[in-house]
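Figure 2 data, in text form.
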Amino acid sequence: PRPGLLQVVKQCVRVPVFVMIRPRGGDFLYSDREVEVMKADIRLAKLHGADGLVFGALTEDGRIDTELCTALLAVCRPLPVTFHRAFDMVHDPLVALETLISLGFERVLTSGCDSSALEGLSLIKRLAEQAKGRIVVVPGGGITERNLQRILEGSTASEFHCSARSARDSGMKFRNPNVAMGASFSAPEYSIKVADVAKVRTLNAIAKNIL
């Protein structure tokens, strides 16, 4: 998020706010310039009140980039840090988990290296068992109120991640159907994705009943 968004969010909520550091879409193999951007973004996030940071970086052969992660972790400290779903693109998730633990990450977000947390449930459970409390394994990816109970019970996870979004129609009265501001596959101009309060409350209720 931009510093302005972070500042406003911090004014509006009481829960801890973790900021994702990701200079672009695509893979997780970063150039030297992109690393400069990531370090600058971390410093700005800390300056504007972030309670934790989230990032991930890989080598070209699908391993955790220990050198880069060590450098970024140093900039993040003393804040807690989560390794995001770049983990799902690693060559060997069991080896990668040990690497993250040794580096000092507090959490790892994963769909179990599959298309969704439900599909990767068996690996998520195996990772949680291997972690033995040394790192928090957080299931994420396609989690909804319909499958959360199965994922939490099947993975033995104590935390989870989901967007809990819904589409909201734009308030624009005048609409030009001949112009699109982005590529054809991007979100339409007259529909906005927002956090759905009802979904969040339902998910929280399910989780509290299980955990």
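Caption note: The helical segments are 3-12, 32-47, 66-76, 93-103, 121-131, 148-155, 197-210.
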